[in-house]
Amino acid sequence: MKQAGTVPAIELTGATKRFRTPSGALHTAVRDLDLAVAEGEFVAVVGPTGCGKSTTLTLVSGLEEPTEGEVRVAGVPVEGINAQVGFVFQQDAVFPWRTVLSNVMAGPRFRGVPANEARARARDWLGRVGLAAFEDRYPHQLSGGMRKRVALAQTFVNDPRILLMDEPFSALDVQTRALMSDQLLDLWAGTGSSVVFVTHDLDEAIALADRVVVMTAGPATVKEVFTVDLPRPRTVEAVRLEPRFVELYREIWASLGEEVRITRERGAGRAA
Amino acid sequence: MPLESAVRTPAATTRTEVRERAARNRKLTVHAARAGVLAAFLGLWELAARTGVVDPFNFSQPSRIRDQIWQWITHGTAQGSLGEQIGYTLYEALSGWVIGVVGGVLLGIALGRIRFLADVFGPYIKVLNAIPRIVLAPIFLIWFGLGPASKVASAVVLVFFPVFFNAFQGAREVDRNLVANARILGARDRQVTVQVVVPAATTWIFTSLHVSFGFALIGAIVGEYIGATKGLGLLVAAAQGTFNAAGVYAAMTILAVVALLTEGLLTFAEKRLFRWKPADSGDGR
Fold first, then answer.
1. Which of chain A's termini has less CB crowding within 10 Å, N or C?
2. Is the domain of B21 the same as that of B85?
Protein backbone atom coordinates (compact mmCIF):
# COMPACT_ATOMS: atom_id res chain seq x y z
CA MET A 1 0.00 0.00 0.00
CA LYS A 2 1.49 3.28 -1.15
CA GLN A 3 -0.22 6.14 0.62
CA ALA A 4 2.46 8.59 -0.50
CA GLY A 5 0.46 9.97 -3.44
CA THR A 6 -1.43 13.10 -2.42
CA VAL A 7 -4.32 12.60 -4.84
CA PRO A 8 -6.21 9.32 -4.52
CA ALA A 9 -6.41 7.23 -7.69
CA ILE A 10 -10.18 6.93 -7.26
CA GLU A 11 -12.39 9.14 -5.17
CA LEU A 12 -16.15 9.01 -4.82
CA THR A 13 -17.78 11.75 -2.76
CA GLY A 14 -21.46 11.64 -1.95
CA ALA A 15 -22.07 9.59 -5.07
CA THR A 16 -25.70 8.64 -5.58
CA LYS A 17 -27.18 6.72 -8.51
CA ARG A 18 -30.87 6.36 -9.21
CA PHE A 19 -32.36 4.36 -12.03
CA ARG A 20 -35.78 4.50 -13.56
CA THR A 21 -37.10 0.93 -13.45
CA PRO A 22 -39.15 -0.43 -16.38
CA SER A 23 -42.31 0.04 -14.31
CA GLY A 24 -41.48 3.74 -13.93
CA ALA A 25 -40.50 3.70 -10.27
CA LEU A 26 -37.28 5.30 -9.11
CA HIS A 27 -34.73 2.84 -7.77
CA THR A 28 -31.74 4.03 -5.77
CA ALA A 29 -28.82 1.70 -6.37
CA VAL A 30 -26.10 3.70 -4.62
CA ARG A 31 -26.68 6.28 -1.91
CA ASP A 32 -24.27 8.91 -0.69
CA LEU A 33 -21.18 6.82 -1.19
CA ASP A 34 -17.76 8.02 -0.05
CA LEU A 35 -14.74 5.96 -1.00
CA ALA A 36 -11.12 6.70 -1.81
CA VAL A 37 -8.64 4.27 -3.31
CA ALA A 38 -4.94 5.08 -3.18
CA GLU A 39 -2.47 4.68 -6.01
CA GLY A 40 -1.46 1.03 -6.28
CA GLU A 41 -3.95 -0.13 -3.71
CA PHE A 42 -6.08 -3.27 -3.99
CA VAL A 43 -9.54 -2.72 -2.55
CA ALA A 44 -12.16 -5.44 -2.36
CA VAL A 45 -15.81 -4.46 -2.07
CA VAL A 46 -18.12 -6.98 -0.45
CA GLY A 47 -21.82 -6.71 0.17
CA PRO A 48 -25.08 -8.60 -0.10
CA THR A 49 -26.23 -9.66 -3.58
CA GLY A 50 -27.86 -6.96 -5.63
CA CYS A 51 -26.92 -4.15 -3.25
CA GLY A 52 -25.37 -1.91 -5.89
CA LYS A 53 -21.71 -2.92 -5.82
CA SER A 54 -21.56 -3.22 -9.60
CA THR A 55 -23.16 0.19 -10.04
CA THR A 56 -20.28 1.69 -8.08
CA LEU A 57 -17.88 0.26 -10.65
CA THR A 58 -19.86 1.56 -13.62
CA LEU A 59 -19.72 5.03 -12.03
CA VAL A 60 -15.93 4.87 -11.75
CA SER A 61 -15.56 3.52 -15.29
CA GLY A 62 -17.66 6.29 -16.79
CA LEU A 63 -20.18 3.86 -18.29
CA GLU A 64 -22.79 5.59 -16.08
CA GLU A 65 -22.91 9.05 -14.57
CA PRO A 66 -23.78 9.63 -10.91
CA THR A 67 -27.16 11.26 -10.30
CA GLU A 68 -25.61 13.26 -7.47
CA GLY A 69 -22.15 13.62 -6.02
CA GLU A 70 -18.80 13.38 -7.69
CA VAL A 71 -16.49 10.70 -9.02
CA ARG A 72 -12.84 11.54 -9.61
CA VAL A 73 -10.11 9.46 -11.18
CA ALA A 74 -6.59 10.74 -10.50
CA GLY A 75 -8.15 13.97 -9.28
CA VAL A 76 -10.09 14.61 -12.49
CA PRO A 77 -13.89 14.34 -12.54
CA VAL A 78 -15.05 11.38 -14.65
CA GLU A 79 -16.64 12.40 -17.92
CA GLY A 80 -17.30 9.53 -20.25
CA ILE A 81 -15.02 6.55 -20.48
CA ASN A 82 -11.53 7.01 -19.16
CA ALA A 83 -8.71 5.50 -21.19
CA GLN A 84 -6.81 4.64 -17.99
CA VAL A 85 -9.54 2.33 -16.78
CA GLY A 86 -9.74 -1.41 -17.37
CA PHE A 87 -12.87 -3.38 -16.58
CA VAL A 88 -13.25 -7.14 -16.19
CA PHE A 89 -16.90 -8.15 -16.32
CA GLN A 90 -18.74 -10.83 -14.45
CA GLN A 91 -20.16 -12.44 -17.58
CA ASP A 92 -18.16 -13.43 -20.61
CA ALA A 93 -17.48 -10.27 -22.54
CA VAL A 94 -14.82 -11.48 -24.96
CA PHE A 95 -15.90 -11.16 -28.59
CA PRO A 96 -17.00 -14.62 -29.71
CA TRP A 97 -16.34 -13.91 -33.39
CA ARG A 98 -12.70 -12.99 -32.82
CA THR A 99 -9.85 -15.38 -32.18
CA VAL A 100 -8.07 -15.24 -28.84
CA LEU A 101 -5.22 -13.16 -30.28
CA SER A 102 -7.59 -10.81 -32.04
CA ASN A 103 -9.57 -10.38 -28.83
CA VAL A 104 -6.49 -9.31 -26.92
CA MET A 105 -5.46 -7.02 -29.78
CA ALA A 106 -8.86 -5.34 -29.74
CA GLY A 107 -8.07 -2.70 -27.12
CA PRO A 108 -4.84 -1.38 -28.67
CA ARG A 109 -6.41 -1.53 -32.13
CA PHE A 110 -9.44 0.49 -30.98
CA ARG A 111 -6.99 3.03 -29.63
CA GLY A 112 -5.15 3.33 -32.91
CA VAL A 113 -2.02 1.27 -32.19
CA PRO A 114 -0.60 -0.17 -35.45
CA ALA A 115 -1.45 -3.84 -36.02
CA ASN A 116 2.13 -5.11 -35.71
CA GLU A 117 2.72 -3.47 -32.37
CA ALA A 118 -0.72 -4.48 -31.08
CA ARG A 119 -0.01 -8.07 -32.08
CA ALA A 120 3.33 -8.08 -30.29
CA ARG A 121 1.82 -6.67 -27.12
CA ALA A 122 -1.10 -9.09 -27.27
CA ARG A 123 1.25 -12.05 -27.71
CA ASP A 124 3.26 -10.86 -24.71
CA TRP A 125 0.18 -10.79 -22.48
CA LEU A 126 -1.15 -14.07 -23.84
CA GLY A 127 2.18 -15.57 -22.83
CA ARG A 128 1.86 -14.17 -19.33
CA VAL A 129 -1.60 -15.68 -18.84
CA GLY A 130 -0.37 -18.98 -20.30
CA LEU A 131 -2.46 -18.97 -23.46
CA ALA A 132 0.30 -18.52 -26.05
CA ALA A 133 -0.57 -21.86 -27.65
CA PHE A 134 -4.23 -20.95 -28.03
CA GLU A 135 -4.04 -17.69 -29.96
CA ASP A 136 -5.87 -19.06 -33.01
CA ARG A 137 -8.78 -20.53 -31.10
CA TYR A 138 -12.21 -19.02 -30.83
CA PRO A 139 -13.63 -18.36 -27.35
CA HIS A 140 -16.22 -21.15 -27.61
CA GLN A 141 -13.37 -23.63 -27.97
CA LEU A 142 -11.94 -22.64 -24.58
CA SER A 143 -12.94 -23.50 -21.01
CA GLY A 144 -14.50 -20.90 -18.73
CA GLY A 145 -11.23 -20.33 -16.91
CA MET A 146 -9.33 -19.86 -20.15
CA ARG A 147 -11.90 -17.36 -21.41
CA LYS A 148 -11.45 -15.43 -18.20
CA ARG A 149 -7.70 -15.39 -18.79
CA VAL A 150 -8.34 -13.99 -22.26
CA ALA A 151 -10.45 -11.28 -20.60
CA LEU A 152 -7.60 -10.51 -18.18
CA ALA A 153 -5.05 -10.29 -21.01
CA GLN A 154 -7.49 -8.16 -22.99
CA THR A 155 -7.73 -5.74 -20.08
CA PHE A 156 -4.07 -5.71 -19.03
CA VAL A 157 -2.79 -5.16 -22.56
CA ASN A 158 -4.13 -1.60 -22.36
CA ASP A 159 -1.91 -0.91 -19.31
CA PRO A 160 -4.77 0.42 -17.18
CA ARG A 161 -3.87 2.57 -14.19
CA ILE A 162 -7.16 1.56 -12.66
CA LEU A 163 -8.55 -1.93 -12.73
CA LEU A 164 -12.22 -2.51 -12.02
CA MET A 165 -13.34 -6.09 -11.54
CA ASP A 166 -16.97 -7.05 -11.17
CA GLU A 167 -17.15 -10.51 -9.61
CA PRO A 168 -14.83 -11.68 -12.37
CA PHE A 169 -14.35 -15.23 -11.11
CA SER A 170 -17.81 -15.95 -9.74
CA ALA A 171 -18.77 -18.20 -12.65
CA LEU A 172 -15.73 -20.44 -12.20
CA ASP A 173 -15.40 -23.56 -10.10
CA VAL A 174 -13.61 -23.30 -6.77
CA GLN A 175 -10.21 -24.67 -7.83
CA THR A 176 -10.05 -22.59 -10.99
CA ARG A 177 -11.06 -19.56 -8.97
CA ALA A 178 -8.10 -19.98 -6.60
CA LEU A 179 -5.72 -20.36 -9.54
CA MET A 180 -7.14 -17.30 -11.23
CA SER A 181 -6.82 -15.27 -8.03
CA ASP A 182 -3.13 -16.15 -7.77
CA GLN A 183 -2.63 -15.32 -11.41
CA LEU A 184 -4.36 -11.99 -10.94
CA LEU A 185 -2.06 -11.13 -8.02
CA ASP A 186 0.96 -12.03 -10.17
CA LEU A 187 -0.19 -9.92 -13.09
CA TRP A 188 -1.11 -7.01 -10.87
CA ALA A 189 2.11 -7.06 -8.87
CA GLY A 190 4.16 -5.61 -11.72
CA THR A 191 1.79 -2.88 -12.76
CA GLY A 192 1.32 -0.62 -9.74
CA SER A 193 -2.28 -0.03 -10.75
CA SER A 194 -5.15 0.48 -8.35
CA VAL A 195 -7.78 -2.26 -8.19
CA VAL A 196 -11.39 -2.25 -7.09
CA PHE A 197 -12.55 -5.82 -6.90
CA VAL A 198 -16.24 -6.46 -6.31
CA THR A 199 -17.13 -9.87 -4.94
CA HIS A 200 -19.62 -11.61 -2.69
CA ASP A 201 -16.99 -14.09 -1.63
CA LEU A 202 -15.37 -12.92 1.60
CA ASP A 203 -12.55 -15.48 1.35
CA GLU A 204 -11.56 -14.11 -2.01
CA ALA A 205 -11.81 -10.52 -0.79
CA ILE A 206 -9.48 -11.00 2.19
CA ALA A 207 -7.00 -13.13 0.27
CA LEU A 208 -6.59 -10.55 -2.48
CA ALA A 209 -7.06 -7.11 -0.97
CA ASP A 210 -5.26 -4.46 1.05
CA ARG A 211 -8.57 -3.17 2.33
CA VAL A 212 -12.03 -4.72 2.41
CA VAL A 213 -15.00 -2.38 2.11
CA VAL A 214 -18.29 -3.70 3.46
CA MET A 215 -21.39 -2.29 1.78
CA THR A 216 -24.82 -2.00 3.35
CA ALA A 217 -27.89 -3.72 1.99
CA GLY A 218 -29.19 -1.76 -1.02
CA PRO A 219 -29.11 1.17 -1.65
CA ALA A 220 -25.39 0.66 -1.24
CA THR A 221 -23.21 2.85 0.85
CA VAL A 222 -20.02 2.15 2.76
CA LYS A 223 -20.69 0.50 6.09
CA GLU A 224 -17.24 -0.29 7.36
CA VAL A 225 -13.69 -0.56 6.02
CA PHE A 226 -11.20 -3.18 7.22
CA THR A 227 -7.47 -3.14 6.58
CA VAL A 228 -6.01 -6.52 5.67
CA ASP A 229 -2.56 -6.63 7.22
CA LEU A 230 -1.44 -9.89 5.70
CA PRO A 231 2.04 -9.82 4.11
CA ARG A 232 2.52 -9.92 0.33
CA PRO A 233 3.31 -11.75 -1.87
CA ARG A 234 0.41 -14.03 -1.01
CA THR A 235 -0.91 -17.23 -2.45
CA VAL A 236 -4.59 -17.74 -1.96
CA GLU A 237 -4.47 -21.30 -0.65
CA ALA A 238 -1.68 -20.57 1.87
CA VAL A 239 -2.98 -17.28 3.20
CA ARG A 240 -6.32 -18.85 4.01
CA LEU A 241 -4.70 -21.01 6.67
CA GLU A 242 -3.11 -18.16 8.61
CA PRO A 243 -4.65 -17.35 12.00
CA ARG A 244 -4.82 -13.64 11.14
CA PHE A 245 -6.91 -14.50 8.08
CA VAL A 246 -9.43 -16.36 10.21
CA GLU A 247 -9.53 -13.50 12.68
CA LEU A 248 -10.18 -10.98 9.92
CA TYR A 249 -12.79 -13.22 8.43
CA ARG A 250 -14.66 -13.39 11.71
CA GLU A 251 -14.48 -9.61 12.21
CA ILE A 252 -15.64 -8.73 8.73
CA TRP A 253 -18.31 -11.39 8.65
CA ALA A 254 -19.83 -9.94 11.82
CA SER A 255 -20.34 -6.73 9.88
CA LEU A 256 -21.29 -8.22 6.52
CA GLY A 257 -23.52 -10.97 7.90
CA GLU A 258 -25.93 -8.43 9.33
CA GLU A 259 -26.43 -6.79 5.92
CA VAL A 260 -26.84 -10.16 4.26
CA ARG A 261 -29.57 -10.98 6.80
CA ILE A 262 -31.35 -7.70 6.11
CA THR A 263 -31.30 -8.37 2.38
CA ARG A 264 -32.59 -11.88 2.90
CA GLU A 265 -35.44 -10.76 5.13
CA ARG A 266 -36.43 -8.12 2.58
CA GLY A 267 -36.40 -10.75 -0.14
CA ALA A 268 -38.57 -13.01 2.01
CA GLY A 269 -40.93 -10.13 2.70
CA ARG A 270 -41.22 -9.43 -1.01
CA ALA A 271 -41.82 -13.06 -1.82
CA ALA A 272 -44.57 -13.38 0.80
CA MET B 1 -12.92 -42.63 -44.99
CA PRO B 2 -12.77 -45.21 -47.82
CA LEU B 3 -9.01 -45.43 -47.42
CA GLU B 4 -9.38 -46.09 -43.73
CA SER B 5 -11.87 -48.88 -44.19
CA ALA B 6 -9.67 -50.50 -46.81
CA VAL B 7 -6.80 -50.70 -44.35
CA ARG B 8 -8.97 -52.24 -41.62
CA THR B 9 -8.88 -55.92 -40.98
CA PRO B 10 -11.98 -57.74 -42.19
CA ALA B 11 -13.06 -58.95 -38.78
CA ALA B 12 -14.90 -55.87 -37.51
CA THR B 13 -15.33 -56.99 -33.98
CA THR B 14 -14.56 -53.95 -31.83
CA ARG B 15 -17.46 -51.97 -30.56
CA THR B 16 -16.51 -48.70 -32.27
CA GLU B 17 -16.32 -50.42 -35.62
CA VAL B 18 -19.69 -52.01 -35.17
CA ARG B 19 -21.12 -48.68 -34.19
CA GLU B 20 -19.50 -46.95 -37.13
CA ARG B 21 -20.90 -49.50 -39.51
CA ALA B 22 -24.35 -49.13 -37.99
CA ALA B 23 -24.17 -45.35 -38.47
CA ARG B 24 -23.10 -45.82 -42.08
CA ASN B 25 -25.87 -48.29 -42.71
CA ARG B 26 -28.42 -45.97 -41.21
CA LYS B 27 -27.30 -43.16 -43.52
CA LEU B 28 -27.58 -45.46 -46.51
CA THR B 29 -31.04 -46.58 -45.47
CA VAL B 30 -32.21 -42.98 -45.11
CA HIS B 31 -30.90 -42.07 -48.56
CA ALA B 32 -32.39 -45.16 -50.12
CA ALA B 33 -35.76 -44.48 -48.48
CA ARG B 34 -35.69 -40.90 -49.75
CA ALA B 35 -35.01 -42.02 -53.30
CA GLY B 36 -37.72 -44.65 -52.88
CA VAL B 37 -40.33 -42.07 -51.87
CA LEU B 38 -39.53 -39.95 -54.92
CA ALA B 39 -39.56 -42.95 -57.25
CA ALA B 40 -42.88 -44.16 -55.81
CA PHE B 41 -44.44 -40.72 -56.14
CA LEU B 42 -43.32 -40.25 -59.74
CA GLY B 43 -44.14 -43.86 -60.62
CA LEU B 44 -47.68 -43.64 -59.22
CA TRP B 45 -48.24 -40.35 -60.98
CA GLU B 46 -47.04 -41.80 -64.29
CA LEU B 47 -49.12 -44.91 -63.83
CA ALA B 48 -52.24 -42.97 -62.88
CA ALA B 49 -51.82 -40.74 -65.91
CA ARG B 50 -51.29 -43.66 -68.29
CA THR B 51 -54.23 -45.68 -67.01
CA GLY B 52 -56.43 -42.59 -67.13
CA VAL B 53 -57.10 -42.32 -63.40
CA VAL B 54 -55.99 -38.67 -63.62
CA ASP B 55 -56.32 -36.63 -66.77
CA PRO B 56 -52.83 -36.06 -68.23
CA PHE B 57 -54.10 -32.94 -70.02
CA ASN B 58 -54.71 -31.19 -66.68
CA PHE B 59 -52.22 -32.96 -64.44
CA SER B 60 -49.54 -33.88 -66.97
CA GLN B 61 -47.21 -36.78 -66.23
CA PRO B 62 -43.53 -37.17 -65.31
CA SER B 63 -42.45 -38.49 -68.69
CA ARG B 64 -44.01 -35.53 -70.49
CA ILE B 65 -42.38 -33.11 -68.09
CA ARG B 66 -39.04 -34.79 -68.69
CA ASP B 67 -39.59 -34.57 -72.45
CA GLN B 68 -40.54 -30.91 -72.11
CA ILE B 69 -37.39 -30.10 -70.16
CA TRP B 70 -35.32 -32.07 -72.62
CA GLN B 71 -36.92 -30.23 -75.54
CA TRP B 72 -36.20 -26.86 -73.92
CA ILE B 73 -32.62 -27.86 -73.33
CA THR B 74 -32.02 -29.12 -76.85
CA HIS B 75 -34.22 -26.85 -78.97
CA GLY B 76 -34.67 -23.85 -76.70
CA THR B 77 -37.95 -22.24 -75.70
CA ALA B 78 -40.22 -19.95 -77.70
CA GLN B 79 -38.47 -16.96 -76.08
CA GLY B 80 -34.93 -18.18 -76.68
CA SER B 81 -32.61 -20.73 -75.10
CA LEU B 82 -33.45 -22.17 -71.70
CA GLY B 83 -30.16 -20.94 -70.23
CA GLU B 84 -31.07 -17.42 -71.20
CA GLN B 85 -34.41 -17.67 -69.36
CA ILE B 86 -32.76 -19.04 -66.23
CA GLY B 87 -30.07 -16.38 -66.51
CA TYR B 88 -32.66 -13.62 -66.72
CA THR B 89 -34.62 -14.81 -63.73
CA LEU B 90 -31.48 -15.33 -61.68
CA TYR B 91 -30.15 -11.93 -62.67
CA GLU B 92 -33.39 -10.23 -61.60
CA ALA B 93 -33.68 -12.21 -58.38
CA LEU B 94 -30.03 -11.70 -57.47
CA SER B 95 -30.02 -7.96 -58.15
CA GLY B 96 -33.25 -7.53 -56.22
CA TRP B 97 -31.88 -9.65 -53.41
CA VAL B 98 -28.58 -7.78 -53.16
CA ILE B 99 -30.29 -4.37 -53.20
CA GLY B 100 -32.91 -5.47 -50.70
CA VAL B 101 -30.36 -7.07 -48.38
CA VAL B 102 -27.97 -4.12 -48.46
CA GLY B 103 -30.81 -1.67 -47.88
CA GLY B 104 -32.38 -3.81 -45.18
CA VAL B 105 -29.13 -4.40 -43.31
CA LEU B 106 -28.00 -0.76 -43.46
CA LEU B 107 -31.35 0.65 -42.41
CA GLY B 108 -31.94 -2.08 -39.84
CA ILE B 109 -28.63 -1.45 -38.13
CA ALA B 110 -28.98 2.33 -38.37
CA LEU B 111 -32.42 2.23 -36.78
CA GLY B 112 -31.30 -0.37 -34.26
CA ARG B 113 -28.42 1.84 -33.15
CA ILE B 114 -30.00 5.29 -33.36
CA ARG B 115 -33.06 5.51 -31.19
CA PHE B 116 -34.27 8.76 -32.69
CA LEU B 117 -34.46 7.29 -36.18
CA ALA B 118 -36.24 4.21 -34.87
CA ASP B 119 -38.85 6.34 -33.10
CA VAL B 120 -39.46 8.49 -36.19
CA PHE B 121 -39.51 5.82 -38.90
CA GLY B 122 -40.82 2.87 -36.88
CA PRO B 123 -44.54 3.42 -37.54
CA TYR B 124 -44.05 4.05 -41.26
CA ILE B 125 -42.08 0.87 -41.71
CA LYS B 126 -44.78 -1.06 -39.88
CA VAL B 127 -47.44 0.38 -42.19
CA LEU B 128 -45.41 -0.43 -45.30
CA ASN B 129 -44.83 -3.92 -44.01
CA ALA B 130 -48.56 -4.41 -43.56
CA ILE B 131 -49.18 -3.91 -47.30
CA PRO B 132 -49.33 -7.23 -49.15
CA ARG B 133 -46.30 -6.41 -51.23
CA ILE B 134 -46.93 -8.86 -54.03
CA VAL B 135 -49.76 -6.60 -55.30
CA LEU B 136 -47.12 -3.97 -55.97
CA ALA B 137 -45.81 -6.06 -58.86
CA PRO B 138 -48.39 -4.72 -61.39
CA ILE B 139 -47.62 -1.17 -60.27
CA PHE B 140 -43.91 -1.73 -60.80
CA LEU B 141 -44.74 -3.08 -64.26
CA ILE B 142 -46.45 0.23 -65.05
CA TRP B 143 -43.60 2.26 -63.57
CA PHE B 144 -40.60 0.37 -64.89
CA GLY B 145 -41.93 -1.41 -67.98
CA LEU B 146 -41.58 -5.00 -69.21
CA GLY B 147 -37.81 -5.15 -68.72
CA PRO B 148 -35.90 -6.53 -65.72
CA ALA B 149 -36.24 -3.33 -63.67
CA SER B 150 -39.85 -4.03 -62.64
CA LYS B 151 -38.93 -7.57 -61.49
CA VAL B 152 -35.94 -6.32 -59.57
CA ALA B 153 -38.22 -3.83 -57.84
CA SER B 154 -40.73 -6.47 -56.74
CA ALA B 155 -37.87 -8.67 -55.52
CA VAL B 156 -36.45 -5.73 -53.54
CA VAL B 157 -39.70 -4.98 -51.69
CA LEU B 158 -40.13 -8.65 -50.81
CA VAL B 159 -36.56 -9.02 -49.59
CA PHE B 160 -36.16 -5.72 -47.77
CA PHE B 161 -38.61 -6.21 -44.92
CA PRO B 162 -37.59 -9.54 -43.45
CA VAL B 163 -33.93 -8.55 -43.68
CA PHE B 164 -34.64 -5.14 -42.19
CA PHE B 165 -36.54 -6.53 -39.21
CA ASN B 166 -33.90 -9.13 -38.49
CA ALA B 167 -31.03 -6.65 -38.73
CA PHE B 168 -32.95 -4.24 -36.53
CA GLN B 169 -33.62 -6.91 -33.94
CA GLY B 170 -30.04 -8.12 -34.14
CA ALA B 171 -28.67 -4.62 -33.57
CA ARG B 172 -31.07 -4.09 -30.68
CA GLU B 173 -30.27 -7.33 -28.91
CA VAL B 174 -26.50 -7.13 -28.93
CA ASP B 175 -25.15 -8.31 -25.60
CA ARG B 176 -24.77 -5.17 -23.47
CA ASN B 177 -21.64 -6.59 -21.90
CA LEU B 178 -19.94 -6.82 -25.26
CA VAL B 179 -20.76 -3.20 -26.04
CA ALA B 180 -19.63 -2.05 -22.58
CA ASN B 181 -16.42 -4.07 -22.91
CA ALA B 182 -15.66 -2.61 -26.35
CA ARG B 183 -16.24 0.92 -25.07
CA ILE B 184 -13.99 0.36 -22.06
CA LEU B 185 -11.31 -1.10 -24.31
CA GLY B 186 -11.38 2.16 -26.23
CA ALA B 187 -13.87 1.72 -29.09
CA ARG B 188 -15.63 4.84 -30.33
CA ASP B 189 -19.27 4.73 -31.46
CA ARG B 190 -18.44 3.87 -35.04
CA GLN B 191 -16.07 1.12 -34.00
CA VAL B 192 -18.76 -0.30 -31.72
CA THR B 193 -21.21 -0.36 -34.62
CA VAL B 194 -18.86 -1.88 -37.17
CA GLN B 195 -16.87 -4.22 -34.96
CA VAL B 196 -19.40 -5.28 -32.35
CA VAL B 197 -22.97 -4.64 -33.46
CA VAL B 198 -22.56 -5.81 -37.06
CA PRO B 199 -20.81 -9.11 -36.27
CA ALA B 200 -23.23 -9.78 -33.41
CA ALA B 201 -26.18 -9.15 -35.72
CA THR B 202 -24.87 -11.36 -38.53
CA THR B 203 -26.47 -14.45 -36.99
CA TRP B 204 -29.84 -12.73 -37.15
CA ILE B 205 -29.20 -11.35 -40.61
CA PHE B 206 -28.16 -14.70 -42.02
CA THR B 207 -31.32 -16.34 -40.80
CA SER B 208 -33.25 -13.86 -42.90
CA LEU B 209 -30.97 -14.28 -45.93
CA HIS B 210 -32.08 -17.87 -46.43
CA VAL B 211 -35.74 -16.98 -46.41
CA SER B 212 -35.28 -13.80 -48.37
CA PHE B 213 -33.55 -15.39 -51.33
CA GLY B 214 -36.67 -17.47 -51.80
CA PHE B 215 -38.66 -14.24 -51.67
CA ALA B 216 -36.41 -12.65 -54.28
CA LEU B 217 -37.10 -15.56 -56.64
CA ILE B 218 -40.82 -15.24 -55.98
CA GLY B 219 -40.67 -11.51 -56.70
CA ALA B 220 -38.84 -12.07 -59.97
CA ILE B 221 -41.10 -14.92 -61.09
CA VAL B 222 -44.35 -13.13 -60.24
CA GLY B 223 -43.09 -10.03 -62.04
CA GLU B 224 -42.26 -12.10 -65.10
CA TYR B 225 -45.54 -13.91 -64.91
CA ILE B 226 -47.48 -10.66 -65.03
CA GLY B 227 -45.56 -9.27 -67.96
CA ALA B 228 -42.09 -9.78 -69.35
CA THR B 229 -40.08 -10.52 -72.46
CA LYS B 230 -37.77 -13.14 -70.94
CA GLY B 231 -37.52 -15.39 -67.91
CA LEU B 232 -38.84 -18.54 -66.22
CA GLY B 233 -42.00 -16.78 -65.04
CA LEU B 234 -42.81 -15.93 -68.64
CA LEU B 235 -42.22 -19.59 -69.49
CA VAL B 236 -44.86 -20.55 -66.93
CA ALA B 237 -47.25 -17.91 -68.25
CA ALA B 238 -46.69 -18.98 -71.87
CA ALA B 239 -47.16 -22.66 -71.05
CA GLN B 240 -50.35 -21.88 -69.18
CA GLY B 241 -51.59 -19.79 -72.08
CA THR B 242 -51.24 -22.75 -74.46
CA PHE B 243 -52.75 -25.25 -71.98
CA ASN B 244 -49.36 -26.93 -71.71
CA ALA B 245 -49.48 -28.37 -68.17
CA ALA B 246 -46.16 -30.16 -68.70
CA GLY B 247 -44.55 -26.79 -69.45
CA VAL B 248 -45.77 -25.32 -66.15
CA TYR B 249 -44.43 -28.28 -64.17
CA ALA B 250 -41.19 -28.28 -66.11
CA ALA B 251 -40.59 -24.61 -65.34
CA MET B 252 -41.41 -25.31 -61.69
CA THR B 253 -38.93 -28.17 -61.58
CA ILE B 254 -36.19 -26.00 -63.05
CA LEU B 255 -37.00 -23.26 -60.54
CA ALA B 256 -36.78 -25.71 -57.65
CA VAL B 257 -33.37 -26.91 -58.79
CA VAL B 258 -32.13 -23.32 -59.16
CA ALA B 259 -33.44 -22.41 -55.70
CA LEU B 260 -31.82 -25.47 -54.11
CA LEU B 261 -28.46 -24.75 -55.71
CA THR B 262 -28.41 -21.13 -54.51
CA GLU B 263 -29.51 -22.23 -51.06
CA GLY B 264 -26.56 -24.63 -51.03
CA LEU B 265 -24.19 -21.80 -51.92
CA LEU B 266 -25.61 -19.67 -49.13
CA THR B 267 -25.18 -22.44 -46.57
CA PHE B 268 -21.58 -22.85 -47.70
CA ALA B 269 -20.92 -19.12 -47.27
CA GLU B 270 -22.55 -19.20 -43.85
CA LYS B 271 -20.33 -22.05 -42.70
CA ARG B 272 -17.23 -20.11 -43.73
CA LEU B 273 -18.44 -16.96 -42.00
CA PHE B 274 -19.49 -18.55 -38.72
CA ARG B 275 -16.41 -20.53 -37.89
CA TRP B 276 -16.42 -18.76 -34.54
CA LYS B 277 -19.69 -20.38 -33.50
CA PRO B 278 -20.00 -23.71 -31.70
CA ALA B 279 -20.84 -26.33 -34.29
CA ASP B 280 -24.17 -27.54 -32.97
CA SER B 281 -25.97 -24.38 -31.92
CA GLY B 282 -27.68 -23.13 -35.02
CA ASP B 283 -30.21 -21.26 -32.94
CA GLY B 284 -27.71 -20.14 -30.27
CA ARG B 285 -27.09 -16.77 -28.69
1. C
2. no
